[in-house]
Amino acid sequence: MIQNIRKVALLGMGTVGGGVYKIIEKQKNELIHKIGAELEISKVLVRNKGKYANLIAPEKLTDQWSDIIEDDSIEIVVEVMGGIEPAATYIKEALQKGKHVVTANKDLIAVQGHELLELAKTNHCDLLFEAAVAGGIPIIRPLNQCLAGNEITEVMGIINGTTNFILTKMSEEGMDFAEALQLATDLGYAEADPTADIEGHDAGRKLAILASLAFNSPVTFQNVYTEGISKISAKDIRYAHELGCEIKLLGIAKNTEDGIEVKVHPTMIPQSHPLAAVNDSYNAVFIHGDAVGDAMFYGRGAGELPTGSAVVGDILDVARNIQFHCTGRIGSSCYKNIPIKDIKETKSSYYVRMKLEDRAGTLAALAGVFGSNNVSISMLLQKTKDEKTADVVIVTYDVLEKQFMDSIIVISNMSMVKEISSIIRVYH
């Protein structure tokens, strides 16, 4: 028996909004039993009502925010517009009016998430954002609930499907970067302007959210070091294979004794690691906790229905909380204030590919520069060679980024060094 109706307003009818609408309409009868109430999308905010006239009943369509914020019967606002404004204003006003909010907006949560969660707490509201990271993969809720008994020391993952698709094509089919990017664009994986994806900004926003939840300390996008994949070559992919590795764009967050490390960059990862086998547009998040050990979450990281699935899951959670009078029970988990480490103070192993003059004493000179900066060489390989130059690959042991980069500055100015072709961090 239906006890009541939980009314929802949907802000935006793009890819994600369309997915949310389809799932709720398809599951309408099932949701009554899952919630204990009927779920109704009573308003849909769009820019152009005429565009959706054949899909949504006219009385539900609006282009005025006031039709939603002033309607006291609407309890849940679902923001799937994206961007910072007007989404931030709408979410704040909704929370201040006592409306619960579900959002998929990683850009906003990565910058203002802590502030918004505090506002939700003040107004005894739910603010849920499962879809903001890794699309359809459940990861926010596990961090907040299932793994809450753990001290989590590391979160890392493949959290951008576009770059993973590009690197997969480079690895499996020998494509160069430009060719793989064009294919990703043709298939709709890459935007017309792919900068946010290929330069690591999208993954950086998601990593900021994951690190904040995992380590219970505020981390914003501005804290995350980001480096993209545009300099990765087919040659680097081949050499990585020879070293038993794959190259992936990884988001890596660690909670160390002297602060939090948060960085996104191309990484050589051993082929034996579970993340090395995550290909195409799939995402995966790998977590280490003191009690659970290692756990990995894998699935579709984007798309209409996978992301819509995560949004609808949050809507059902809020609706149930309203039914049982327990909203606002999970607010901001950032009760610590751990310092964020500068990238220069982090440690890594490095792969360096350079083009050198083929003359006596060159390798000894390089080793001398590295040694004077406390950089130990794990492996040195001479690859291709012509009459005047040789392609040389060096892999270091773990070293402070600052010491390694000091070495590179000196080496790049040496007369026998014609080119430093590539620098990629190596994960152990």
Automatic annotation (TrEMBL):
NADPH binds at K106. GO terms for biological process: methionine biosynthetic process; threonine biosynthetic process. Its cofactor is a metal cation. The active site is at K206. Its EC number is 1.1.1.3. Pathway: Amino-acid biosynthesis; L-methionine biosynthesis via de novo pathway; L-homoserine from L-aspartate: step 3/3; Amino-acid biosynthesis; L-threonine biosynthesis; L-threonine from L-aspartate: step 3/5. One of its GO terms (molecular function) is NADP binding. Transmembrane segments: none annotated. Belongs to the homoserine dehydrogenase family. The gene is hom. NADP(+) binds at L11, G12, M13, G14, T15, V16, G17, G18. It comes from the Bacteria. This is Homoserine dehydrogenase. L-homoserine binds at E191. It comes from Anaerotignum propionicum DSM 1682. Pfam families: ACT, Homoserine_dh, NAD_binding_3.
